[in-house]
Amino acid sequence: MKYNFNIKIKKTNRIRTVSFLVKNQELLISVPKFISNKEIDRLILSKINWINKKLSSEKLNTPLIAKSFVNGEKLMFFGKNYSLKLEESCFTNIVLDLNNIIVSSMDINNQDKVKNIIRNWYIVESKKYLIKTNSYYEKLIGVSTRKLLFGEYKSKWGSCNSQKRVSYDWRIIMAPIEVIHYLVIHELCHIIHPNHSQYFWMLVEKYMKDYKLHKKWLKLNSNKLVI
Question: Whole-angstrom Cα distance, residue 147 to residue 138?
Fold first, then answer.
């Protein structure tokens, strides 16, 4: 059976009992050699609620990389690190050049105001890109979103409910383009398969052959997608 998390199994003669450990968004299982794969699968299913709680808890407790909003600080946009460049001006504006995110404002020495300017810019850019990308994959997959929502969520980057309401965390705009596309495909495939069954992952793979790479990138780098 396929799961929405990675599993590493270690079989050894040195132990007589089964142990489970969740680490770095993976399930690590140590089992005696005589335990069959079918039995291992049954044991995973019996612990699935505990496993999911541990995965969610680990994600929530991943330390975030705080920003100071000073000249030269690195900010991510579409997976690339840009240097923050602050310029004093009577007008508030943001310009993206080859290597810099240039913020013009009267309040460049006010950390909170600079943060809000950048945050609002990210939100606008994220909505524009996600609306366009969501529409593209709706047509490709042959599904229709009833409502598109944007927010800032603690334990998810996207969701799709039974009413076909699809939600995205606007901060995903900081991730590489391929990761953003993986997220959109993932959520839209839930309109057809509202679970993480084998058929769901087969459908995701149909539209993104290397989805596992981007899924793993998101798990390992979530703490970088903050401002």
Answer: 12
In a domain, 69, yes or no: no
Q: Is 169 helix (H, G, I), strand (E, B) or coil?
A: strand
Q: What is the pLDDT of residues 147-169, one digit of tens each?
A: 999 999 877 899 999 999 999 99
* CATH number for position 174: 3.30.2010.10
Domain end residue (candidates: 60, 85, 105): 60
Indicate the pTM of the whole model.
0.73
- Cβ–Cβ < 8 Å for 145, 168: no
Distance CA 225, CA 223 (A): 6
Looking at the structure, do residues 166 and 120 belong to the same domain, yes or no?
A: yes
* Helices 211-221, 177-189: crossing angle, 10 deg rounding: 110
Measured over the CA atoms of residue 136, residue 138, residue 140 and residue 141, the dihedral's sign is positive
The pLDDT tens digits for 14-51 are 888 888 888 877 888 998 988 888 888 888 888 888 88
Residues 204 and 96 in one domain: yes
